[in-house]
Amino acid sequence: MAQDRRRVGTLGPGRAGPARMARPSGLGGDAAVSGSDLLGAMLAGPTWFLARAEPGLGRLTESISLAGVLGSGESSGRIRFHTSASAVPLAGRLLRAPVTPFDLGRGSDPQQTLIDSSGVQALLDAVSRRRPAVVVVDGYPLLLPLLRAVSPARLVAMANLHDLRNPAHSRGARLLQEALHQSADLVLVSELRRGWTRGRIGPVPLLRIPALVREEVPTGPATPGREPPPRVVAVLGGGSRGDRRLQDSNQQLLGALNLAVGRGELPSCLVFAGTEPHSLGAGLPNLQMADDPARCLDTLAAAELVIARAGRSTLAEVLASGRRAVAVVAESDTLRGAEQAANAAAAAKLSPAVVPLPLARLDGLAEACRRAMVSNPRRWRPGNRTVLAALGSI
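Structure (tokenized):
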């Protein structure tokens, strides 16, 4: 345990000299690359993003946000974004850069998933021929060694610290994560935090920054002439693939919301629950189920109160837009329940207007909503304005 913590430790800014990012020999370029060199390559481009969007759209927003920071809102061809086919409409709305569908084509074993995947084959072929300067990989660590083998591009891995060093994982699971990420030049971890620190995963530099959100998160009253935003918005979704208890928690939360509206404890509730909302909302007459998940972020940022599962990306949007919120901590039969509990606690520390509520205490939903509504949100700055400075200082 102690050995693993040292491998994925943190180091505050200014407590060590500039680090050099190790690169495998024989791939072209220098044997090492500095943070400023990597940042320059990301800004100059071409920079490709490879971002997984399933099982929820939430994690996708951070890759979109980083692409937006690098692209500065311009469509110059420097950025190219690859994501799951189901997420292409959302990414296309939020980015001016080209968005291309990419799916692994999951099989029953790694041989079928990776070697026999036409998507992986096409990706590797495109990377080797078109030679992007940087490839940012979010959610596909298994592809890092493959990309390293076929391309001299700089590799940046966007990772979840919970996956990298969770003490509930076996030692073998942590070693696997370390082995996969050693093909990267940098591991970038965004969290619900203030300020940034640096550390390492094995020999690879690791940068921990405040979570990224969409550029120009809308706040304040609705635009004149438009329909006013709903007062209460619920956001359900995400979670771990195959985690039945975590997914079943959606139905429990929907039932509690339907009851709260029926009792008059909530004035109304617009629910965003993925791509098939009406199947979840059957038999819940007091709830309005949203048809378009791409509307979720804008609607969330204008609501008076947000009730959401405690995913990191959702809570980052809540904090950045200064919303009041109840963060429902879902139970899990894997490890996501512990992660959501940590997210809710971190968000509550950053703003008193975020009130954590365990799923087992849904009978206290009305009181949690009241506490959130009488609290004043505290200002929190996401990592959008600091990520470039943090990268350049390594």
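DSSP finds 16 helices and 17 strands in the chain. The first strand starts at residue 10 and ends at 11.
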